[in-house]
């Protein structure tokens, strides 16, 4: 099966500019995650979608970050305006849904990531 | 809130040495536990996972991990590392509502 697709792989912008990242999860995966991974740190959850609804965006800096998953399939993460501290790899991951009535024991599948450098 | 601690940030081993990477989590409920690996230039991949049953789980490439509930730990082990195991290793916890939390990672360098 095809994996999680992300684009662009690399992006260099100046501070105060805007940028958008795109993610297409594995077909049929209802849950989609965006993580931020700063160099030397582990992935930090930014936002989690279940189909086209937001489950958790408590760590998303909403004054500059936004994300959407309008049709419950692919998703876009936008940063506007970017700051120097936004330099990071933005990871998209997806997870299959559990069978009705059972606990979900599935893992996350990750894309290659989008590396953002803000100058 | 859930959190994950990985205490070894950078480990250097010679080939054939044994490996143990520590992972502790904080969460009072039922958890699923995972180890992911990121080889240089590649995306995060699953090494192994625990969700129930035998607390000793085996993964790919000879890795295993042991879940010790009383210690809130899920340490990763490999009896004999190879140069190709050079990578960064992340422990992750999944508790409520499909949420996943990751540790800060351990960079492993295996010297040939």
General description of the model:
The complex is a heterodimer of chains A (119) and B (112). Chain A contains no helices and eleven strands. By secondary structure, chain A is mainly β. In chain A, strands 2, 4, 5, 6, 9, 10 and 11 form a seven-stranded mixed beta sheet that branches. In chain A, a hairpin with a 6-residue loop joins β7 (65-68) and β8 (75-79). The model of chain A has no long low-confidence stretch (mean pLDDT 92). The radius of gyration of chain B is 13 Å and the shape is globular. Chain B has strands spanning 3-5, 10-14, 19-21, 24-26, 32-38, 45-50, 56-58, 64-68, 73-78, 87-94, 100-102, 106-111. In chain B, the strands form three sheets. In chain B, strands 2, 5, 6, 10, 11 and 12 form a six-stranded mixed beta sheet that branches. A four-stranded antiparallel beta sheet of chain B has the order 3-9-8-7, with no helix packed on it. Chain B has a two-stranded antiparallel sheet with strand order 1-4. The chains are: A mainly beta (119), B mainly beta (112).
Shape of chain B: globular
Based on CA atoms alone, the radius of gyration of chain B comes out at 13 Å
**Unreliable stretches of chain A:** none
Distance between the termini of chain B: 41 Å
**Percentage of residues in helical conformation of chain B:** under 10%
Q: How many helix segments of chain B?
A: 0
Instruction: Characterize the main sheet of chain B.
Output: 6 strands, mixed
Structural class of chain A: mainly beta
| Assembly status | heterodimer
The helix/strand order of chain B is EEEEEEEEEEEE
Chains forming the largest contact: A-B, 26 and 25 residues
Instruction: Output the number of helix runs of chain A.
Output: 0
Shape of chain A: elongated
Series of H and E elements of chain A = EEEEEEEEEEE
Number of strands of chain A: 11
The separation of the N and C termini of chain A measures 37 Å
> What is the residue-mean pLDDT of chain B, rounded to a whole number?
93
Q: Beta-strand level of the residues of chain A, as a percent range? A: over 45%
Largest sheet: number of strands, sense, barrel closure of chain A: 7 strands, mixed
In terms of DSSP E residues, the strand content of chain B is over 45%
Average pLDDT confidence of chain A is 92
